[in-house]
Each structure stands twice: as structure tokens, then as C-alpha cells.
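Notes from hallway chat w/ T.B., transcribed later so I don't forget. T.B. wanted the structure written out for a chain they're using in a teaching module, and asked if we could keep both sequence and C-alpha cells in one place. Agreed to drop them here.
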Amino acid sequence: MQIYLIRHTKVDVPKDIFYGQTDVPLFETFDDEVKEISIKLKGIIPDAVYSSPLSRCRLLAEKITDENIIKYDNRLMELNFGDWEMKSWNQINKIDSKNWYDDFINTSCPNGESYCDLYNRIHLFYNEISKIDCKNIFVFTHSGVIRAFMAIVNEIDLKESFREEIPYGCVISFKK
């Protein structure tokens, strides 16, 4: 089985804003980015398609695949930043942000989740799809989720998974 992890396209949100599970608008280059991603996936027919329900993933999945076969799964959503959603670093309590930054693997955002929480939900999802009998699976998701997949598949430390850049519109594939 080949699993294709596809990160959503650029979003129309300033760089220093936490927008994890907030449904944010897409950048004006969406159609051009869809074409680039389609080229990367050309000739690959998915047997199963999964997507985060957030519109930045959902709209991409619907443009690239047959929307009748897409299964939306909340576990594929980005990290929940809780009270920090749609706030910038400057708007967050300095002590809270320092504690989180020093150990984001284990420390949850206020009313949100830690990276370990995200990792655990992705591990459950990965275990489920690993049992499916098919050739190609597309997963439309977010950078944090892709990093968690990489930690699982490559058996690397969670902090290590953040060394890899995950650009908008990237496609990462691996064999299961």
C-alpha cells in the first residue's frame, strides 16, 4: 500500500497567527496550486481518500479526487491551539507561550492540545488505515499531522519530526 500525504494550499492568514483548527480562507493562488498538486499526483488512482474536514483540505480533496469517495475524519485536523486560535504570539501571555514553546510536545495550549495529543490521534488513524486492503490512499491534511505521520512511519522522536519542512501543497508518500 502507498500512502500519499497531501498538505493543503496556502491560506490567507498572516504568518504569526495560530489558526490550527479554525476554518480560514484560502489564498488567491488556490487554483494554480491545485494544478501543481494534480501534476504531482498524475496517473495515481486512489482506492481510498481521507481528508481533514477543514475547508482548506476539503476543497483541495474535492478538486483533485471524486468527492463521492472522500471520507472526512476529524483526527486529520491540525493541532488545536484552543484559546490561542486566531491570535498572534504578541497576544498570548508570555509565561504560557514560553512554557508551551519549551515543551510543545507535552504541553497543551490553554483549552487546546499538545503535539503528543495530535500524535496519538494520528497513530490511531494510521493503525486503522494500515488494515485496509488497497493500493493507494490519499490523505489531505495539515503540516502538524504530516509530521506526526513521519514520526510514526520513520520511528523518530516527536521533536525530530519538526526538522523537516512541510511546504504548502507538498506531497509526501511512503509504503506501508
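Follow-up for T.B.: The two ends are 5 Å apart (CA to CA). Might be a good example for the class.
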